[in-house]
Amino acid sequence: MEPELRCLKALLSPVSGIVDTHSLMLSLVGEAENHGATFSYNTTVIGGHIEENRLSLHISETKHLENWNGKFPLQPEMVLIPKLVVNSAGLSAPVLAKRFDGLRSAVIPPTYYARGCYFTLSNTTICPFKHLIYPIPEDGGLGVHVTLDLNGQVKFGPNVEWIDGIDDVSSFLNKFDYSVCTNRAKLFYPEIRKYYPNLKDGSLDPGYAGIRPKLSGPRQSPVDFVIQGEDIHGITGLVNLFGIESPGLTSSMGVAEHIATRFFRC
């Protein structure tokens, strides 16, 4: 089935596939707006406070955070008192939860950050694979695997680069380095050639990078998604989503259905 693949044994998943994430987001936005949702862009939840066991959200225009260095308190321009708050801020979810005055710090898990880079396959007119190819998982990730996009482009990644020294301000403002250094390719070639020995020198071009919001660090056992409600933290109408890394996008509809069924009250 895959003549370019070198392995002893493999498992075939016949229903695995890919999705156009941008089109998915546009579809979800349109469907939400058709059901009465309003999106407030260029707006940031900067914190909140607990009053009568409900969470009040502090809101500010995003442009007011551009020069913020954490040395002075942020003042809200608006305070909202919603029935349900879902903290799904990804990388910033734990540090945002820390800014909810009255939420016990003990319920906020420690966070770890891991950068993952992708490289694209160039200098080829024929795609070497017809399926997504996953090697044995590594510490902190799924290993440098083969991904095919909707245009037939072959991508390899992600690797795992643990990031240390991220302060709360940098995490809150998403000040991460998403650049892909060309020199990192030298680490990819030996990993890819473990299952694709015919990979030619000079055939990898820098692609893109992402950051995983992990709840487990190097050489620690993996931790599953944390969907944290009132039964854990004791605050009515607050749901925290921690550690929603890959496959968080694939699981997003299931996570949303779980939250709507378990936590939403009309």
UniProtKB/TrEMBL annotation:
Keywords: FAD, Flavoprotein, Oxidoreductase. It comes from Prunus persica. Belongs to the L2HGDH family. It comes from the Eukaryota. Its cofactor is FAD. GO terms for molecular function: (S)-2-hydroxyglutarate dehydrogenase activity. SUPFAM superfamilies: FAD/NAD(P)-binding domain (SSF51905). Pfam families: DAO (PF01266). It catalyses: (S)-2-hydroxyglutarate + A = 2-oxoglutarate + AH2. The lineage of its organism: Eukaryota, Viridiplantae, Streptophyta, Embryophyta, Tracheophyta. InterPro entries: FAD-dep_OxRdtase, FAD/NAD-bd_sf. This is L-2-hydroxyglutarate dehydrogenase, mitochondrial. Its EC number is 1.1.99.2. Residues 2-261 form the FAD dependent oxidoreductase domain.
